[in-house]
Amino acid sequence: MEPLLPHAKVLLTMRDEYSWAASIRATIMYSTSEPSKLCNTTFLLRPLNMEKRRPADADQLFELGMGVSPEPASTTDQEAWQTPCLSFRERVPPTDRLLELPSEPRLAAALPVSGRPRPQPSEEFPRLKRHEVL
Questions:
Q1: Predicted model pTM
Q2: Does residue 55 form part of some domain?
Q3: CA–CA separation, 58 vs 39, rounded Å?
Q4: pLDDT reported for residue 41
Q5: Are 88 and 11 in contact (CB under 8 A)?
Q6: Domain that holds residue 72
Q7: How many domains does the chain have?
């Protein structure tokens, strides 16, 4: 299949696997009284009509689907983090089309992508993943 824009640049922002896994745990998953159990997975299973399953089944399906285990610093986290990056690299050969940048704001700001100065935002980016909102 030919790409629609074969010469377009593709930007892949990279986040380290530890902060990525911590973010997944803090926003999508959160611990109940037993650390090995997950909760609040029903909304992810609703499109599959699986929300009526036992919570243990939902937790296992969530872990399989998301690729993130409830245990910190597991190899599953690293594999789940690397999968989308590898997929992008396969689709966009590592030529001058693929630009990889760290998502850490200070590092990303230091690396010019287009050669033009970056416009400064007029207001702070909204923080939608705050715990008060959830």
A1: 0.38
A2: yes
A3: 9
A4: 46
A5: no
A6: 36-87
A7: 1
